[in-house]
Description:
Layout: E1 5-13, H1 26-34, H2 36-49, E2 55-58, E3 69-70, E4 73-74, H3 108-116, E5 122-125, H4 137-152, E6 160-161, E7 181-183, H5 191-200, E8 210-212, E9 215-218, E10 222-223, H6 236-253, E11 256-261, H7 270-289, E12 293-295
Parallel strand pairs: 1-2, 1-11, 1-12, 2-5, 6-7, 7-9, 10-11
Antiparallel strand pairs: 3-4, 8-9
Helix pairs in contact: 2-7, 6-7
Amino acid sequence: MSAPGTFLLTFDVELLWGLFFDPKWRRRAEEKYGAVREVFPEILGILSRHDVRATFAFVGHLFLDGCERVNGRAHPDLPRPALEVAGGDWYSFDPGTDAATDPLWYAPDLVKAVLAAKPDHEVGGHGFSHAFLDGPAELARAEMRACAVAARGVNVEIRSFVYPRDIVAHPEELAGAGFTCYRAAGTATGRVRAFLRRILGATPPVGRPRRHGDVIEVPTSATIPPAMGVRRLIPLASRLAEVEKGLAAARDQAACFHLFTHPHNFVEGRARMLETLDRAMAKVAAYRDRGEIKVKTMREVRP
Length: 303
């Protein structure tokens, strides 16, 4: 029998750090991210039922119980990414309070939920403040290291890194912050083409990990998109067909099929989205139980 393929599932956990800077989406984002804590236990329950492990990549600030402003500035020791609103200060919206007061900015409870769940999942990093890291290397270095430090504050040593907005930049800085791997940028196919591929349930790309210096690039295959906007039109059958074909391709090519998504993607159309995850993980479990794929977390992947 040929070597089995590999399946990976990654959740990018952002809460309000994902869209705080966009006035157009801010109010809707607050509503959607506010419901993440309602859907999170159900996501963990589905993974437990099918015994599928995943990587949960947290924005580093979410590891914190709270933080304080110093002379009116949050995290004054960190460099400020470019920002077109709020006077250009990325941290200007950071409330400088705590998880009880502003739970969309802090989430140690969600980290603890992942660590307590079965099977054993991986906790990774998603930058410290979800800043885009294609600017100066100094910014990337600071964000990566602050993320790792915040995780150690809750006794977690993170090794896997997911770039905010999938903008891969300065991977040479990762090892210095303790990271051993990162998720590759997704294939740029354009929104219309990507939508059509999902409607048709086309075969997603699979790939193999590659070493870049001291870190490993983990390939990316496809996302589980939310049921909002035009993506509400993607049939459940098409979503599941994409998963089935990805698993088959990983098996046939002894490659990696890597799905990624966000917990907030399961808020709108909640029942349908959770059914999608449940049935997708049932497919993963069937392939695993037949010995055709292995389920791994990001930090376990090797070239």
